[in-house]
Structure formats: C-alpha cells, structure tokens
Amino acid sequence: MPKVLVVDDEVEITVFLCNFLKRFDIESQKASDPKTALAAFNQFKPDWVFLDIKMPDKDGFELLEEFKKINSKVKAIMITGKDDKESQDKAKGLGACDYIVKPLDLEELHEKIEKHIL
Amino acid sequence: MIINPFSISCLILAITTLAMIFITLFYGKKILLHRLWILFNASVFIWASGAFVISQITSELLAVSLWKFAITGIIFSPIFLFHIVYVLCELTNKKILIAVYVQGALAVIANFTGLLTNLEFMFDSFYYPISIGYAYPLLYSSWVIIILYAHYELFRGYRKSSGIKRNQLLYFFIGTMSGFTGAAINFFPVFGFKFYPYSNFLPTIYCVIATYAILRYRLMDIRVFVSRAAAFLISYPIFLSIPFIFAYRMYGVIYPLLGVHWWLVPAVLIIFFASLSPLAYGQLRIRMEERLLSEQKHYQKLLLQAASGMATEHNLNKLAKLIVYIVKRAVKIDFAAIFIDDKSNGVYRMKSFRDHQKISPYENITFLYEHPFIQYLTKHTEPCLYDELPQDIRQSLGALSGAAMIVPSAVQENLLGFVLLGTKLNKQPYSDDDINVFKILSHQAALAIENSLFMEETKMAQEKIFTAEKLASIGGMADGVAHQIKNRLNQFSVASGELKYEIRDYLKKNPQVTKANKDLKKTLDYLVTIADSLITNVKRTDGIVKGILNFARVEETATFFSNFSLKESVDLSAELLRIKHEISEVPLEVDLGSSDSVYGVKSQITEAVYNLMDNAYEALQEKKTLLAKEGRDAFKPLIKVKLSQKASGSRLEISDNGIGMHDENKAKVFAPFFTTKSSYKSGTGIGMYVVKRMVEENHHGKVGFTSVYMEGTKFFVELPKK
C-alpha cells in the first residue's frame, strides 16, 4: 500500500486527513510545519504528499521542490485556497499530479485517491 | 438782438429743450418713454423758438404765421405730457389717450384756420395773441383738464409706487407742476390780463428736472439733490463773487496803492477763491449729507463691516441666517429673505427669512430655474428695485410682491442666490447710494455663499471619498480575510466530510447493529444529512467569499492588456449580481456573437460590465416596484448583453427594459458621486464615473447610452482593437 505524507499548517486538517486515508488502508503521517515535514519525509519516505500551498515560513511549492530533490519520484496532490490558472500551472510545472481547491470536499478527494493512488 | 425778459426766457428755453432732445437721443434708450420725451421737448422747442423770433420782429404779418407755428407747440406739449404719464404710470385706458390726441388734431386745425387768436402789440415789445370767440377758451380749458388729469394720475402713481420709481414720479410731478404753472401764466395776456410773461423761465427748470427724472432712472434722494444745489450755490457763485465785490468796493483804495497793477489784487483773490470753492463745496456737501443721511450712512457702514465678516462663515445655513439678520437689522426694513441655489433640486430655495414677527408667511418658497424671475436675475445680476422689474416679472412674483429691493449674488454670471428686501420702516425710498452699498454686499455675499457651497460640496465629496477609500482598503484586506475564512471553511468542510465518512464506514462495518436498532440507524442517517447540509453551506459561503474577493481584486491586479473572453467577465458579473442582490437568477440574455474575444485589461472591463449590469438590474427593480405600486405586474424584466465585432474594435451593448432615465439626470450619469439609487447596497455614485475613466482614459474607447423613461436604457462600450 502507498504511503502518504499530509502537510498542512492547520493541525486539525492533518488529523482529519490522516484519519480519512486510513479508511482506504493508506498509511499516512502528518506534518504541520516545513521542518517536521522534511524530517518526516526523510524518515517515512512517502510515495505521495498532500501539500497545502499557503503556509507560513515555506509554501507548498517550495516544499515540493525540496521533496523532489530528495526523491524525484514522489507524487503530490496540491491543496490550495487559490483557484487560479497561475497556481495550477505552477503546480503542474513542479510535477504535481493533481490540484484540489479549498474548502476540501472529501468526496472529491475520495475520487482523486481512487484515480491516482488506489 | 432785442433783449427783454421774454426774449431771453424764450431763447433759454429753446436752447434748453434742444439740448434735452440731444441728451435724450444720446443717453436714452430706444424705448417709448424716451421717444415721447424727445417729442415733448420738440413741441416745447417749437413754442420757444417761435416765440423768440416773434420777440425779435415788428412785422405783424410775419408774427401771425410765427404765432401759428408757436401755438402748434403749445397744443402738443400737454398731449405728449399726458402720453408720458400714461406710460410712466402704466395706465391702461386707451380711449382717454385717443381722445387727447383727437383734441390735439382739432386744435391744430382751429389754429391754422385762424379761429383762435388775433395779435396785439403788447408791453411795447412784441406781438402777443389775443383770444377771439370761444375757440381759444375752450381749447385752453381742455389743456388745463388734460394737465390736471395727468397730474392727478402722476400723484396716484406716486402714492402707489415705492422706492426709486416713487422718486422718479415725485421729480416729474414737481417738474411738470412748476413748468405748466409757468406756462399757464403765459396765457394771462391772451385773455386780456396784461401780465408780463416772466414765468416763461419756469418751463426751463422743468425740462431739466424732468429730463433728469426720465433719463436717470435711479435718482438721488430729493433732499440730497436740494442740499447739493445749496452747497453749490454757496460755494461757487457766492465765493467767486467776493473778488468782484472786493474790486468794486475797494477800487478807490487799491488804485492809489498799485496804480495800473491794481487788478493783481482781485486776480489773486479769484485764484484763491477759485481753488477754495471746490474744497468748500466738497466739505459742505459732505457735512450736509452726513446730517441729512446720518441714519443711512450709519447702516451703510454697518453693512460694509458685516459684509467683510461674512467670508469667515462656512456653514451655509448659518450664513443665510447671518445675511438676513444683518440686512434686516442694519437697514431697518419690514422683512428680508434669502434664496440660495439648490442644485440637486434645480431650484432657488428660501434659506432664511426674517420680519418683525420673526415668522415667515412664505414658508418653503422655491423658484424653479425656469421661473421668469430667475431667468431675469441671471441676466441682470445687479441690485435692482422691485419697481424696476418688467411688469410681467413683477406679476410672476406673486406672494413676494412686498419686496422693494432685490439683491442678486452672482459669481461670474452664475447666480448663487438673491436677497429680497422689504420696504424701509421709515418709508424712505432706497437711494442710489443704497444700491451701491448693496452691490458691495451682494458681491461679498456671493463670495461667502460660493465658499460655503464649495465647502459643503467638498465635505460631502470627502465623505464619499472616505467611504470609497474604506471600501478600497477593505478590498485590499479582502485577500487576507478571505484566506482566513477559507481556512475555517476548509475545517468545516473536512470535518463534515469526516463525520459523513465515519458514519458511513460504521454503517458498512456494523450492519447488524443498525438492523437491531432502527432508531440508531435513523439517527445516523440524519447525521449524514446534517453533514451534507454543512458541506453545501460551506460551498455557498465559499462562493460568496470568492465573489467579494474577485471584485476587490479588480483594482489591484496587474493592468495588462490582452485579448480575453468576454464571456468570463459576463459570467463573473452575473455571479456577483446574484450574490449582491440575493437572487437565484439574473434575467439575462447574452449574445456574444461568433467571437467573444475583446482586447483590454480584463479586470477593468469586467468591472465595467459588472457596473453596467448592476445598474441595469437596479433599473429593472425600480420599474418593477413602480409598476407593482400601480397594480401592474405584467412586466418581464430583461437585461440584454450583446457583443459585436467590427473592423475597428468590439462594441458591447448592455440594455435593459427597466425604468430608464429622466432627461435631467442624463447629463449627470458619468459625474462622480451622482446616484439615483436608493438601495442601501449600492450608490457610492462612483461606478459610472470609474467605468467612463477606465474605458475612455485607459482603453481609448467610448462609453455612451440612450435612455427613455419607463422604457429602458442601453449602454454601449466601444473598445478599439490592439
């Protein structure tokens, strides 16, 4: 089964999402700041990352770039408040597989998980 | 030349009347009154010149023809006098006027057929007429009647009128009284009373005074006139005669002393008194007038002081009260009222009123811009008397006919307001000096009013700018606020989702529990419905936030020109309208043609489209409300958006079948801070202003509209190609 690292600066969201992933028997870990995220990425070695774009200190794009440096094969689904073409293009350019707009609809995420991960 | 009192008086009268004719020709206007005055003087001139020549000759034959000529002048002078009074006093009985002229025509016939007089050599000097039969007495009495009737009307007119007109009539009355008294005495010898016609000097004075009265519409106070004449008499003739009297009396003393150079003494005296006279005249005049007009001068000084203080008052209402208070108190009049331009309603509105009872019988009086009185004032911005107004305008004033003086305040031909003044409590007329003081006062008041109007407008504009700025800063904050809200919404969304999945999973994993406990199953199903409802509401809230955010961002996004899809702008605008007006659907018909691509700054064009659609929607709502009030609701509101492409660029039309515009609002559509919207949701009044600036200044395009009240409005935006 694939492993997913969930990164969002809102702790509750990471808790909910990890719990949600468990339903599909997906192993997951959570991180709510860039430092823990990098540490978890190195230790946990996830196949997938769910990344919030707008975060303090380091945004999702930068984090994705760093993850890619460590493991170029890592796949990502970006989660963001911004629904513009600019952000979508940037995410695609950095090699993200998909893009979900906040507020996160878990049914939509469900579809994407089935499409990409399962 | 034969010199005797009669010949001299005739010569003086002839010269004077001739001079008066020329003066009236030069200074008069082409009005009936002045023409009649010329005719009157001409008839007196005929008499005077004829009589002068008669005084110079001894031939009886020549005298007969000359007297016929002179009497023609006598016949016509009362006729023209009556006609002048007829015009001056605005008499209306034409029959009397015609009768007077007919009488004149008969008299002329009688005169030339020799029915009137014979001649007799009188006073050892000249031939003078002697009445024969009844024709002359008859004619004479009809003249007397005409003249008395004219004076009766003059007196009535004088009693009725006020102010300068009153003065004018008074002068004229005094003038004609003395003139015709003089003339009447001339007739004594005709009836056998051998009384030398010395009184022939009197008509001269009359002609001068009356010319003054007729030409100088605004007269001096008669007391001032008399006092000035007295001052002149004292300072010039009396002063200047001193050297001559001195020379005459002291010749015997000076000649032995100075010999042939005796004249030096009186010459020096003449120079001395000649230079002293104007000084004396000036001083004397001022002293006398100060005495005479102490009250008037006092309030004039007060007014001028007050006028200079007005500029410091910036509150329009207070200023209006102040002006009325000052004028009423200083001039001591029965009432004063001020009217000030109320641009938003297109009227001049009474701002303040004051009379001795301190209550206004003319509450809330307004004059429309189109009112004949206002039309008159915009053309004549100098203070004027009520009596000077044309008759039709006086009648149009109606309730305000108690006004004696009107003082308009204008800046550069722009009538800001006017003050109406009642009659003075001491019943004195307004003088020329008063008018001069009011001129200064009105100028000061105009500046002060303009100042206050400007301050008021600026204040209002600033308040609106402040609101607009607040909105803009909210726009700037919106991004950050929206991010926060979205994160919260995200929590709701994820939590609700989790709730739903948790329950669903539980039901999947434990089918036996729900089978056993139907109530639990029911509760869990209900919880799922709640979770769904939460998620739907989160999505709707998100939609609203997105709408606000998109709108706020219009100003700040980079102003880049590009070819973009107008459909997106129209869709976004429609979405915003739905959110703003809380409606499910905008009645919209969109026809974007084959290509919906336009060239411009997307954010700005979107805002323009949004503003135009918003106005269209408001117009629909307004018409709907109006029709509903009248009980008619067969109205299908519709906004049409149409895009057409031309070689030069794109033309966008946004039309509605809403309320349309009144003509008076059409010119103001693009003015900043103009709004007719009553809705609390809208009406900053800068929407169309911003649209025009964005389209015309940034895009070098064109915005315009056509509109018919109750039928609808069509706006177009033309955007040139790249």
Describe this structure in words.
The complex is a heterodimer of chains A (118) and B (722). Chain A is of the alpha/beta class and 118 residues long. Helices cover 47% and strands 21% of the residues of chain A. Chain A has one domain (3-113): Rossmann fold, CATH 3.40.50.2300. Chain A has a five-stranded parallel sheet with strand order 2-1-3-4-5, sandwiched between helices. In chain A, helix 2 (34-44) packs parallel to helix 3. In chain A, 38% of the residues are buried. The mean pLDDT of chain A is 89. Chain B is an alpha+beta fold. Chain B folds into five domains: 5-219, Rhopdopsin 7-helix transmembrane proteins, CATH 1.20.1070.10; 227-292; 296-458, Beta-Lactamase, CATH 3.30.450; 461-548; 558-720, Histidine kinase-like ATPase, C-terminal domain (Heat Shock Protein 90). Helices cover 63% and strands 13% of the residues of chain B. Chain B contains 20 helices and 15 strands. In chain B, helix 14 (432-509) packs antiparallel against helix 16 and helix 16 packs across helix 17 (566-581). The longest helix of chain B has 78 residues, at 432-509. Mean pLDDT of chain B is 78; it is low at 554-558. The A-B interface holds A 10, 12-13, 16-17, 19-20, 23, 54, 81, 83, 102-107, 109 and B 482-483, 486-487, 489-495, 497-498, 500-501, 505, 535, 538-539, 542, 546.
